[in-house]
Design a protein that fits this description.
The protein is α+β, with helices and mostly antiparallel strands. It has a domain at about 475-615. Helix content is about 30%, strand content about 25%. The strands form six sheets. Strands 1, 2, 5, 6, 7, 8, 9, 10, 11 and 12 form a ten-stranded mixed β-sheet that branches. Strands 13, 14, 15, 20, 21, 24, 25 and 26 form an eight-stranded antiparallel β-sheet that branches. It has a two-stranded antiparallel ribbon with strand order 3-4. Strand 7 and strand 8 form a beta hairpin. Helix 6 (about 115-130) crosses helix 9 (about 165-175) and helix 9 (about 165-175) packs antiparallel against helix 10 (about 180-190). The longest helix has 18 residues, at about 275-295. The protein is globular and about 75 Å long.
Length: about 625
Amino acid sequence: MLKPLYFTPFTTDEIKPAGWLKKQLEIQAEGLSGNLDKIWPDIKDSRWIGGDREGWERVPYWLDGFIPLAYLLDNEDMKQRAKKYIDAIISRQQEDGWICPCTFEERTHYDMWALFLICKVLVVYYDCTKDERIEDTVYRALKNLQIHMEHHTLFEWAAARWFECLIPIFWLYERRPEEWLLDLAYSLRIEGFNYEELFDNWRYTKGENKWTQTSHVVNLAMALKSAALYSRVGKNDPNKMAKQAYELLQKYHGMACGHFTGDECLSGKSPVQGSECCSVVEAMYSYENLLSVTGDPYWGDLAEALAFNALPATVSPDMWTHQYDQQTNQVCCTKLPEGHVVFRTNSGESHLFGLEPNFGCCTANFNQGWPKFALSAFMKSENGIVSAITVPSSVSTEINDVPVTCELETEYPFRNTLKYAIHTDRPVSFAFSVRIPGTVVSAAVNGEPATPGNFFTIEKEWNGTEEITVSLEWKTRMENRPNDMFCVKRGPLLYSVAIKEEWTKLEYERDGVERKYPYCDYEIRPLSKWNYAFADDKFTVCENDDYPSAFSTEQPPVSMTGTFVEIDWGFENGVCRETPNSRTPISAPCKVTLIPYGCTNLRMTEMPFVNVQNRN
């Protein structure tokens, strides 16, 4: 038996982005995401569509974000380009159901992770289009997988990511409740990595300069949702392993932004260690799934933490370039000299912004971050609608055959007011729930106190148009970080020193792939001071109503000023030191501007406090 979801996501037919979120999706469509199929050989000439380039994860990764992006924006050109790929993939499915682009002889050694991924993509396409071909295509592909696994066990990435296939399996089972699908889910669980055992007997308490599947940051970001997904057919607690895993990852590898390091594998808590871009969007997707499966508002807070901080920080404001690794204290992005690469198993160009720094998986995969986050804005509860993720958007649905629309107007997380308008064509009773962020000090819904970190539910008969106002109270706070350092947060936003910067184009060709503007790489050098320490814990907030986009570096929606002093941090081989050489001030106290971490390209985030004894 397949247990129901606690909250069921809506589709692109029902959810529409608005405000700054819609603008962010438009920037993505105009940037690298919306143009990869025009220039990048691994997409443009992929074996998935009859070409001779990569025929494994890159086209599915890209489509996983490109498809919902096209339909959320109702962009006809992008829809047709997505259809071209789906048509080609479906047309190449073999008679026995095999769908991945390889010869019969290559099947034995083909890593089935790509199959899990393309089946997920086909489900996304169905949710956007209701294309009648998809159900049969996925049915035949999964039936073939069942037969394939009778002769070939899972290995490599498929073994590490077995649970991702549960998503299309459960989707198909809801349409065709055939017992073999649950048998397939069981087989995947048995042959795949045992993450419960991994976290019950945790051994990765420090970063190591070696590469393993079990400490790989993207695998672990994905695996956060594994037990919750399997709980739909098993007896396990859907929350237990995920919370245990997140707490361990934060304890030993946590970053100020709420993510965890991994460059490429778990890397400790140093602010100059990196975290892979893929891991950010996969962790977001895990939290969105966990929110859906468990109904626990905790996961909404974590999804927002990454969306508002880590995701925009690892992608340039115009979304034409991205990093492979982001650093918490990232004061320069130039190629690191051989023998002095701070990243444990990644190259010295991993923190450059570009087309495919270090490795191209993130080039294809970062595309899913914003579209899937947007699709999590509202969800269906058993008896109504839930505002699950706090972003400007609307949802239109039917409840008891009555058309219902709910719109959220807000500039959250840059402002602290949420304005809902619920419209019904005629009277209808249902529950409307708002997730109150756990990062606020207090909250009120239409003047009535609401508890942070919980859902506030209004259950009543609705008629016509009714408005709901949610007021949130934030407090600027300094949080402890390792080595007696601190970071500053306000609400869901992390703040960093604003560093003026100079971008240098790197245009070249490698492995037959041309980097040429706007598809080129960039080095970024600082043009202002960054070697600061906190001299006070008082900050003045400045709101800017004239911002061009939510994560603009030059004109951010909000900033702070605080009192700092310069210290001797130390800088060598393109990286600032993990901790400063000295904490003795070398300047008089001065005012310094902080901007949201997500608005930065260069940043200083974790810093010491030189007058700890005077803190309030």
